[in-house]
Structure formats: C-alpha cells, structure tokens
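dumping the sequnces here before i forget
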Amino acid sequence: MNYPSLNKEYHTLKESYANRGMNLENLINETNKYYIDKDIAIIYKKPTPIGINKVSYKENKQVIREAYFKSPSTLDYNGIYKGYYIDFDAKETNNKTSFPLLNIHEHQILHMRRIIKHGGITFLIIKMCNNYFLFPGEKLLIFIDNNERKSIPYQYIKENSYEIKEGYRPALDYIKAVDSLIKENKNEN
Amino acid sequence: MNYPSLNKEYHTLKESYANRGMNLENLINETNKYYIDKDIAIIYKKPTPIGINKVSYKENKQVIREAYFKSPSTLDYNGIYKGYYIDFDAKETNNKTSFPLLNIHEHQILHMRRIIKHGGITFLIIKMCNNYFLFPGEKLLIFIDNNERKSIPYQYIKENSYEIKEGYRPALDYIKAVDSLIKENKNEN
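..and the predicted 3d for all of it:
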C-alpha cells in the first residue's frame, strides 16, 4: 500500500529541478494540477483513509493524537475527463519480470469491475523497468479471470498497455493514453 | 466544515433502530452502501484530508501521533451513476429562513463550476427545516453570480431543488432526484 510519508505530503516541486527524484505519485499529482490549471481534466487523489482513536483540543482546534492508516477500498485517483468518469491507481514495482498482484487488493479489483460495468474508465498507471504504462482495467480483469498466477508477466503488461512518456510539463501526460482507451472501448461496443 | 467525530466514524446501524438518530452524513453513507449492494450507483465518501506532523512505529506498524484536519478542496462524495460523473456534498443547517453560504468554501464552488463545465452532475444535499433537498449546482451558481447576499433564502432552495424523502431502505433515496436533474440538464442543452 502506498502510505503517504511526511516528505511526500510536504514535497514542493522547484521547476528548475523538473522531475528529478519525483516518485510516481508525485508525477501524477503534478500532472493532475496541470490538467486542472489548463482545464483539461478534473482529477484528484483521494486522501488516505485513516481511523482515528484519540483527539484532543489545542487552542480550540481538534488535534489527532492517535490514528492509523486504513486500506482503501477504492482506487486513489478519480474525477472527470470529457464527461467520462475516470478512476485509477498508481503502482510501482522493482520487479523486472512480472507485476505482483499482491499490489492490488481484492476489493480494488471488485471496484474496477463495478466501474467498467457502470460505463466508467478505469486503469492502473504502472511504473516498471523504468517505463510507464496505462494498463486498462479490462486487460487486468481478463488476466485475473483466466490465470491462476499471482503476478502478471511484464510482456503481457507491455503488449496490453498504452505507454506514457515522462516529460517536463506535464510530468506524466497520461491523458493521451486515456483518449486511446476511450477510443478502443468505443470500437469494442 | 463537517469533521468526522469518533462516534460518526465507528457508528454501525442496527437495522431495528432504522434511521433513528442518524445525521445526514450517516443517512447518505447508508444509502450509498445500498446503491453499491444493489448495483445502482458506485458512489463513495472521500476520506477527510489530514495533514500529518508525527508518525511513530508500534509493532512494525505506523501510528499517527499528531495530525490535523485540513479543509477539503473538492466535495465529499463522488462516483458514477448511469455513466455520469456524480460529485456532491451534504450540508445541514439549523437556520430556518436561509442557508448560510459560509457552509461552502470558495474552492468548492470553483470545483462545482469545473464539474459542470466538464459534463458532470454536481449538487448539494441540504437538510433544512427537517426537509431534504437535492439542490443542483447550476442553481447554486446562478444564485451566487447574481446576489451579494451571504445566505440563500429557504424559499429559493425549496423552489429550485428536488425534494428527497427519508425512508427505510435506502435511508435517503436521492438517486431519483439525480434522475430528474439529468433529465432537466438534457432538456436545457
């Protein structure tokens, strides 16, 4: 699970450093800000869900004194693009030969099934072997429904994804791949 | 702002008690669960955003030791219904004559403008004078753009909303009002 670290939460990008040292989540967050600024798409990362055990008051304000991270039951990012409901997650793996399915929770897969059924666009953005892929939910489900394997071979991901190139602004221009996915879905229906 | 209280977070509904004592947020959460179970709509409440100051480790698990609530820049609920992107917030007021606009942040209003522009369905569910209203984003913006007032008269809300009746299951069947709003938007375009 991608829990937010302190550094990530308070990270601010100095433009002169471009994308240096940005992890996948930061690249996507910067890209989403760009899309909102340019009125291209309205997509946000959902806050990480937490369970609160203790709260105290300091100068009349609530301060959380004990809390823990909960597993999300949906995907991290959602919003709207060209009238379409968009719902996705970002996953990184250091594994060079296959993508471990442990990275995706059972209820997240169920969520993706539901989104597809209701006419939404859902996918994973996967960083693997220094490449970025938009891996459509449909292809993920086909794999899961037809394999006993606990990981997806790199070759399958590569052949069934749209590649996304890292850039300057936006940092990770994934919306072109979304356009291709929308087009592909239309041709299939 | 509606911060989650401990009671709210851990509230579980015993069916025999029906909706007794449920606040607006709980009514909507129960209704959303019902919609997901019945495969009607896939709508979730976003977690409340928090800023984390201190984290410690206990039995190898991260425990948040100091954190604070942040203001949300979007609305609390979003998801998909009949292929439409749905985005809304729930607001309660004890005021009997008008709805104070202080209840809605400036950036939430901007967010609603963007959602409408991109073809989404956005609204407020308002509980006021013991009635529930689905108040369309379009009507809210018309009011804001044409008035200097800091509150919306009850009469304006009543005349420009779809009323929602409280029930047993689902607790607050707002999706019928969404159907009416979709129909209205179609007729206007």
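Residues 1-17 of chain A have pLDDT under 50 and may be disordered.
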